[in-house]
Amino acid sequence: MKKIHWKILNAALWIEIVLSYFLPFRVTNDFQYQVGFPISFISVYDTKPSINPFMSMHFNPLGFVLDVVVIYLLITGLIKLYQKKRTP
């Protein structure tokens, strides 16, 4: 089993957080907005303004962890591909 590269994992975590701000939301059922790439991990429900915003949100930690793992694997794959192309 290989070691976890903590710097790459940290970068994957921050990339996921930044992507959630810049990628467009998905609207489902005309009242639910979903955030996350490639798996949605935050759902925000369109409710009355008088309700607490935290009561209208749902955070899916499993979706967040899976997103970070997918980005981590993508980054490590790109690093290995770059190193393979670089060495003759």
Record keyword descriptors for this entry.
88 residues, single chain, elongated, alpha+beta
> How much is the average pLDDT?
86
| Helix fraction by DSSP (H/I, runs of at least 4) | 40-55%
Strand order of the largest sheet: 1-2-3-4
> How far is the first residue's CA from the last residue's CA?
27 Å
What structural category do the secondary elements indicate?
A: alpha+beta
Strand % is 15-25%
Output the number of helix runs: 2
Biggest sheet: strands, sense, closure? 4 strands, antiparallel
Order of helices and strands: HEEEEH
Low-confidence stretches: none
Radius of gyration from CA coordinates = 17 Å
How many strands appear in the DSSP assignment? 4
The tally of domains stands at 1
Please identify the oligomeric state.
single chain
Overall, the morphology is elongated
